[in-house]
Amino acid sequence: TLETTAETAVIDAFGPIDLTNLAVGHSLSIDAERRDDEGLLARRVLLAQPLIGRVDAVSDAGLRVMGVEAVFDPGAPRPATLAVGDRVAVSGLWRGDTVAASRVDVARNTRFSAVAGVVSPRGGDGLRRIGAVSARLDDAEGAAAEGRYVTALGRWSPPEDRLSLSVERVAVGRFAMRPGALSVEGFLEPIAARPFFRVAGLG
Q1: Average pLDDT over residues 164-183
Q2: CB 46 within 8 A of CB 11
Q3: Bridge pairing between strands 62-65 and 51-58
Q4: Which CA distances in Å does 51 have to 34, 65, 87, 125?
Q5: What is the distance between the alpha carbons of residues 203 and 33, in angstroms, rounded to a whole number?
Q6: Is residue 170's pLDDT more than 60?
Q7: Which of 44, 71, 103, 155 has the maximal Cβ count within 10 Å?
Q8: What is d(CA 13, CA 94) in angstroms, rounded to the nearest whole number?
Q9: Does residue 1 have a pLDDT over 90?
């Protein structure tokens, strides 16, 4: 059992939200403390959505957002209608270059797009990748070191430009974590360096 109080802070990529906004299928990161034999108390809750942006394509299996394929989990909640041009927030987990989507909501912010994931090395085109989204980090470069988990907000370039996210703000990590017990969920994926595997999306 995970309990909350009036002091439990809940945020998404754009800032504080109300606890009542959380729903079945949302992907969450939670900073919690054990309360003797009374279970866990959530201090902070992060609604960690890998993709927030414009829908490029829709199929029976999923959708594409900012060039990334998101495949619906069985029974994943989603808006009654989904169409190209809609702005959505995709909950779920990175699985390689795709997202296993556990829920799709209408995006609450129409100004910015966002991506949350691990920063990859700079490519030959000078762009970095966050998850599977190409990103222009510019002033945020120092904060977004390779291998770190970040949430990046910015503007998705128009179709006539090289498709990338022009990042205006970066948040590094999920929380300033204190030592303690940790539970992790994600897909195991291969990497080139030791230990040759990582849990997808954690860095």
Answers
A1: 75
A2: yes
A3: antiparallel
A4: 31, 7, 10, 22
A5: 23
A6: yes
A7: 103
A8: 17
A9: no
